Amino acid sequence: MITARGLRKRFRQTSGDGFEAVRGIDIDVRKGEAFGFLGPNGAGKSSTMRMIASVSPVTGGELRILGMDPAVDGPAIRGRIGVCPQEDNLDQELNVFDNLYVYGRYFGLPKQVVRERVGELLEFAKLTEKAKAKVDELSGGMKRRLTIARSLINRPDLLLLDEPTTGLDPQARHLLWDQLFRLKQAGVTLVLTTHYMDEAEQLCDRLVIMDKGVIVAEGAPRDLIREHSTREVAELRFGVGEHAAHAELLADLGDRIEELPDRLLVYAEDGEEVVARTHERGLQPIATLVRRSTLEDVFLRLTGRTLVD
């Protein structure tokens, strides 16, 4: 569905050689899978997604979408993909039904076909009862479901989702997860960016983690956790100012130890054993927590904890 080799994106600046947002990445997205792009701000995710959507030209390398070259076949590609942007850009002057209907007509579909699809998508998005409502009458979750429904009006082979659940409450997020899973079961290939690591674990068959324009890891979420982390993590909280000294005393209890301002993270195969041996050494944490390693542990290890603006 998507193949990229040495893909690059450079932006011109008023002075100097410009800024290279994507620095020679290779990507293969298979039919029917959910593929994710993870990375901190400025990693190159959005620039890559815009090239895949055929709305931003490739600077270097090779990119094929649905077997076509976006530099030559941009309109044909855009006719076969759906795009759900990060920000809802719905038409505030139209009601829910017309937001879908007018968008469907942009693809040159017959009026009756569009009406039938609008009905199907309203049911899919659980918005049938809101068909005549104005956009500003909808909740955030409803607006997000309407935006996703709109991206499906042309029955795309490939659906691009940029931060699909940002700003939604847990109930709305899980409802969207269910709907995206149904789309994947129906054969739609999903490509998404997200800052929610649990979302990536739930939705993605495979993903890449990007940092500073390059891919630093690729694989299934479970494989990435196994490769870059341990089975469990023991979180140990001590008094203010005690963590540095205790980190030295406990460094041999796991594969690695990470010191945070409010706790120590000990990465080990058996977290309960770490806690027991901590007590054996006469140390008394204020609180302890043993949990399984997550994709977030992998993400932070590969991209760092420093805030990127």
UniProtKB/TrEMBL annotation:
Which is one Gene Ontology cellular component term of this protein? plasma membrane
> Looking at the Swiss-Prot or TrEMBL record, what is one Pfam family this protein matches?
ABC_tran
MF (Gene Ontology): ATP binding; ATP hydrolysis activity
- Location within or outside the cell: Cell membrane
Q: How does it sit in the membrane?
A: Peripheral membrane protein
Q: Which residues form the ABC transporter domain?
A: 2-237
Q: Does the keyword ATP-binding apply?
A: yes
Q: Which Gene3D superfamilies match?
A: P-loop containing nucleotide triphosphate hydrolases (3.40.50.300)
- InterPro entries named in the record: AAA+_ATPase, ABC_transporter-like_ATP-bd, ABC_transporter-like_CS, ABC_transporter_ATP-binding, P-loop_NTPase
Q: What keywords are assigned to this protein?
A: Antibiotic resistance, ATP-binding, Nucleotide-binding, Transport
An example Gene Ontology biological process: response to antibiotic
- Assigned protein family: Belongs to the ABC transporter superfamily.
Q: What's the protein called, per UniProt?
A: ABC transporter
Can you name the source organism?
A: Nocardioides silvaticus
